[in-house]
Amino acid sequence: xxxLFVLKNFICIINNEPMKLIIINGPNLNLLxxxxxxxxxxxxxxxxxxxxxxxxxxIVIDYFQSNIEGELITKIxxxxxxxxxIILNPGGYTHTSVAIADSILAVNAPVIEVHISNIFxxxxxxxxxxxxxxxxxxxxxxxxKGYELALKSLLME
Length: 157
Known about the structure:
Number of domains: 1
Strand content: 15-25%
CATH class: Alpha Beta
Low-confidence stretches: 1-11
Distance between the termini: 20 Å
Largest sheet: 5 strands, parallel
Shape: globular
CATH topology: Rossmann fold
Number of helices: 6
Mean pLDDT: 87
Strand order of the largest sheet: 4-3-5-6-7
Structural class: alpha/beta
Order of helices and strands: HEEEHHEHEHEEH
Helix content: 25-40%
Number of strands: 7
CATH architecture: 3-Layer(aba) Sandwich
């Protein structure tokens, strides 16, 4: 419990500026709160993001979502040198996108791959991530709480 208290009240300053993180969500994650609520829950991501930003006011938490692979790659390249970390939920591109994996390799920022559902408890094709080998870590199956777990792991970097 003490560790959580320290993280919650931790002031994140890098080079006299607040720590900057970005959450990047891939395809269909714009439908959180309405899409397959038995798997993904019924909370809209924007509502969850607002709570996360209020809980960690000392950290700049940016957000981007796209259903288009190329836009996700462009955003990773755009922020991968200016942000202190990327929290990435590539959605279905997890299992298919060599290009997103390559974009992670091309940037300096650490990337944590996040999945709301446990991808290993779902269909067989979801068990393999082309992204995970190039990420600092993988968090799967903790619901939206996985984003906060990723944030906390980046605080400890």
